[in-house]
Amino acid sequence: MPKQRKIPQRTCIGCRTVRPKRDLIRIVRTPAGEILLDPTGKQSGRGAYLCPDTACMEQALRKKQLERALEAAITPEIIDRLRDELERVM
Hints:
- This protein has 90 residues and is of the alpha+beta class.
- The chain has a single domain (9-89), classed as Hypothetical Cytosolic Protein, Chain: A (2-Layer Sandwich).
- The protein has three helices and five strands, in the order E-E-E-E-E-H-H-H.
- The chain has helices spanning 54-62, 65-70, 76-89, and strands at residues 9-11, 18-20, 25-29, 35-38, 46-50.
- The strands form two sheets. Strands 4-3-5 form a three-stranded antiparallel sheet. The chain has a two-stranded antiparallel sheet with strand order 1-2.
- The termini are far apart.
Protein backbone atom coordinates (compact mmCIF):
# COMPACT_ATOMS: atom_id res chain seq x y z
CA MET A 1 0.00 0.00 0.00
CA PRO A 2 1.48 3.41 -0.96
CA LYS A 3 2.34 5.83 1.79
CA GLN A 4 -0.10 8.74 2.22
CA ARG A 5 1.57 12.09 1.46
CA LYS A 6 1.23 14.84 4.02
CA ILE A 7 -0.37 18.00 2.59
CA PRO A 8 1.40 21.12 3.93
CA GLN A 9 -0.93 23.54 5.73
CA ARG A 10 -0.45 27.31 6.02
CA THR A 11 -2.38 30.11 7.75
CA CYS A 12 -3.74 33.10 5.86
CA ILE A 13 -2.46 36.26 7.58
CA GLY A 14 -5.66 38.12 6.69
CA CYS A 15 -8.48 35.86 7.89
CA ARG A 16 -6.34 33.45 9.99
CA THR A 17 -7.83 30.31 8.41
CA VAL A 18 -5.64 27.24 7.91
CA ARG A 19 -5.74 25.92 4.37
CA PRO A 20 -3.58 23.71 2.13
CA LYS A 21 -0.48 25.55 0.93
CA ARG A 22 -1.50 25.22 -2.74
CA ASP A 23 -4.79 27.09 -2.09
CA LEU A 24 -2.97 30.19 -0.80
CA ILE A 25 -0.86 32.87 -2.48
CA ARG A 26 2.62 33.58 -1.13
CA ILE A 27 4.06 37.06 -0.77
CA VAL A 28 7.83 37.06 -0.28
CA ARG A 29 10.49 39.50 0.88
CA THR A 30 13.58 38.51 -1.06
CA PRO A 31 17.08 38.58 0.46
CA ALA A 32 17.59 41.83 -1.51
CA GLY A 33 14.62 43.36 0.35
CA GLU A 34 12.17 43.42 -2.56
CA ILE A 35 8.54 42.46 -1.81
CA LEU A 36 6.90 40.36 -4.53
CA LEU A 37 4.03 38.00 -5.21
CA ASP A 38 5.43 34.47 -5.47
CA PRO A 39 3.10 32.38 -7.66
CA THR A 40 5.38 29.31 -7.52
CA GLY A 41 5.75 29.39 -3.73
CA LYS A 42 9.42 28.47 -4.05
CA GLN A 43 11.24 31.80 -4.24
CA SER A 44 13.86 32.28 -1.54
CA GLY A 45 13.14 34.75 1.21
CA ARG A 46 10.72 35.38 4.05
CA GLY A 47 7.15 34.56 3.06
CA ALA A 48 3.58 35.20 4.15
CA TYR A 49 0.44 33.51 2.84
CA LEU A 50 -2.91 35.03 1.80
CA CYS A 51 -6.17 33.61 0.51
CA PRO A 52 -6.75 34.47 -3.15
CA ASP A 53 -9.24 37.12 -2.04
CA THR A 54 -8.84 40.90 -1.99
CA ALA A 55 -10.74 41.09 1.33
CA CYS A 56 -8.02 39.05 3.06
CA MET A 57 -5.31 41.28 1.61
CA GLU A 58 -7.12 44.44 2.71
CA GLN A 59 -7.57 43.05 6.23
CA ALA A 60 -3.88 42.06 6.42
CA LEU A 61 -2.86 45.56 5.30
CA ARG A 62 -5.27 47.32 7.65
CA LYS A 63 -4.01 45.36 10.68
CA LYS A 64 -0.37 45.63 9.49
CA GLN A 65 -0.11 41.83 9.52
CA LEU A 66 1.76 41.78 6.22
CA GLU A 67 4.44 44.16 7.53
CA ARG A 68 4.77 42.10 10.70
CA ALA A 69 4.99 38.78 8.85
CA LEU A 70 7.58 40.01 6.33
CA GLU A 71 9.44 42.10 8.92
CA ALA A 72 9.61 45.02 6.49
CA ALA A 73 7.95 48.39 5.96
CA ILE A 74 5.54 48.38 3.04
CA THR A 75 5.15 51.56 1.02
CA PRO A 76 1.94 52.58 -0.81
CA GLU A 77 3.67 51.87 -4.14
CA ILE A 78 4.36 48.28 -3.09
CA ILE A 79 0.76 47.89 -1.89
CA ASP A 80 -0.59 49.09 -5.26
CA ARG A 81 1.71 46.74 -7.17
CA LEU A 82 0.72 43.76 -4.97
CA ARG A 83 -2.99 44.55 -5.47
CA ASP A 84 -2.49 44.64 -9.25
CA GLU A 85 -0.56 41.34 -9.24
CA LEU A 86 -3.18 39.70 -6.99
CA GLU A 87 -5.96 40.77 -9.40
CA ARG A 88 -4.02 39.23 -12.31
CA VAL A 89 -3.50 35.94 -10.45
CA MET A 90 -7.16 35.67 -9.48
